[in-house]
Design a protein that fits this description.
DNA-binding; alpha/beta; 11 strands; homodimer; 8 helices; four-stranded antiparallel beta sheet; about 220 residues
DNA sequence: GTTTACCTTAAGTTTACCTAAAAGTCGCAT
DNA sequence: ATGCGACTTTTAGGTAAACTTAAGGTAAAC
């Protein structure tokens, strides 16, 4: 679960980022609206925490632009102003929720959970495709009677692919999704993990395989 | 856009219902938690406005039961209690938002708008022309029941042509778009790929063909 | 009839991809 | 602290798929 924090108050932004990380989220933190826009559109986040009061471009405008560009990631707006007019404005600009500063960390976390819940609910707690299933509670891949535990990265990659089993995922997309936008991970890293996953798929005796398309990416395949 | 209002305070519930109707929503209003559950599960709503304090069964439990039954309709919880603990509880029970009474009608409407906004229509990432379609998620060309995967270069060329199906594309243009401006690719290369694409068009049994105009370039053609 | 652009296929070549194995991290328990 | 084990990242060499080139054939234009 990846979250983007956009707030020009550096200390607060960092604090939120750390709070999220302590609670098992992946978090990217940026301090400028411009960067926020860029990250949001390229980073594939599950939620964006967006401050309203920022120099140059305010949170309303960021939200509006994102929505205009068909970006539908849930947005939690954060602000000092707590009058009804600005709440209404925030929500109508595309925010999904609105939280006034100062806030209790518990409430922030609860609202983040609420905003990100839908995504995980649709997925239920077991993803399946062909003859394999991925248990999202214990990070285990199984097929028939055999099963094998997955590491965090292996899990994230397979989880992503199982959500759209027919789609081809480019290495870029996989890197930005699993490692984040500003990581210096090489493409070979993705290749290595694909190799690990293939080994495990073979180990559980599945007929599902990861097929690669040169220059395009990877996708799942079920050979009955 | 259909909304369900569940609140045992009859006058308030009716008021909300009328407010919604004045704002172009369809609204059903019920005054008991049990009815709320039944309506929610059988009524196909876009949003549920749910009071917390109700006799017999409170709003938390209603939300929880709905979520347990895989009902993913957005829930806006309405309550007199406005302490952080109950907000957190509400959100964690499955509510998507939490609004304290008394509230401004403008804010209620804004939150409903926010909750119902994400009626995500899945953008079909498919380009079509005549009897063929090109799936941009898995780089596959299909016609009727048959389909065939494309290589990266084949895909780029066909993608470009499908964006303007009637246009004639010169080899120069194709080279500069697909291989880049400063490539030492020969025109024969384009010819070779056109041959590959024609083979695949034939393979899927399409009536679309790539026709060439001497000295000018290539374009798609659909012979019904 | 000659020219020349275009088509096709098959052979060559590159380079993206694969994998094993080593090196590096991190967390955890002793 | 220290060492162990699991996970992650890097390295490096082999392989084969996709791309490129070449060459002979076909058909359109003049």
């Amino acid at each position: 679960m990846k979250i983007l924090v956009v707030d020009d108050e550096v200390k607060l932004a960092d604090a939120i980022g750390e709070l999220l990380i302590r609670n098992k989220y992946m978090a990217d933190v940026v301090y400028e609206a411009q960067d926020g826009l860029y990250y949001a559109e390229h980073g594939d986040y599950d939620c964006i925490i967006l401050d309203v009061m920022m120099p140059q471009m305010d949170g309303f405008e960021v939200a509006e632009r994102l929505r205009k560009n068909k970006c539908s990631v849930p947005i939690l707006m954060l602000t000092a102003k707590d009058d009804i007019a600005s709440r209404v404005k925030g929500l109508d600009c595309g925010a999904d929720d609105y939280l006034a500063k100062p806030f209790a960390v518990e409430e922030l976390l609860a609202r983040v959970r609420a905003l990100t819940r839908r995504k995980t609910e649709i997925v239920s707690d077991v993803l399946t495709y062909g003859d394999i299933s991925l248990n999202t509670n214990n990070y285990t891949l199984s097929s028939g009677t055999k099963s094998v535990p997955l590491g965090a990265k292996e899990y994230e990659i397979l989880h992503m692919m199982l959500n759209n089993p027919t789609q081809v995922f480019s290495k870029d997309v996989i890197i930005s999704r699993v490692w984040g936008l500003d990581s210096d991970i090489t493409e070979n890293n993705v290749e290595a993990y694909m190799s690990f996953l293939r080994k495990k798929l073979f180990f559980v005796g599945s007929k599902v395989s990861i097929s690669s398309k040169r220059l395009l990416g990877y996708h799942l395949e079920y050979n009955q």
